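Mods, move this if it's the wrong board.
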Amino acid sequence: MPSTNHEMAGSEPLSNGVGVQEPGRQSVGIVSCTSSHFHARGVGLAFIVQAPFALILDTPDLSAGNIIGVLCAADVAVPSRIDGPWIELPFGSFMRHPKVRTGRIRSQKQGWMIAEHKDFGCLLRPFSITEVERCFIAGLFIKLPFVKLSGSAVAS
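Not the wrong board. Structure tokens:
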């Protein structure tokens, strides 16, 4: 299980399945919600991961939180609220499995991400709601396969 000193960004190369980049447009990965949830929530702000990855914890506390998921570079987080430096992802959000980053899971609780880390710098930056909408309309978000937990092993 995770240690109390979480690594918020890593130097290991990751294959995050980032989509095809259009000329003059930014590549995007997965998004933490569906288009219908995005429109139903009336979200005012989204964030894009700019670090190699950013952890999703079960509580807004770096030392006490447990890792429940991860978003990789170019993935988009659509929060339900912002609380200081923390953004909250609602129950049922999509995220990558912490051990199998090429697959996604649906959270069973709300998750918390920190936008800036004292040691690793800026992990998340604001991402235009208009751009999120454009990505949904154009089908640019990646739809990774779901990862199923089988006992203590991970199966995809």
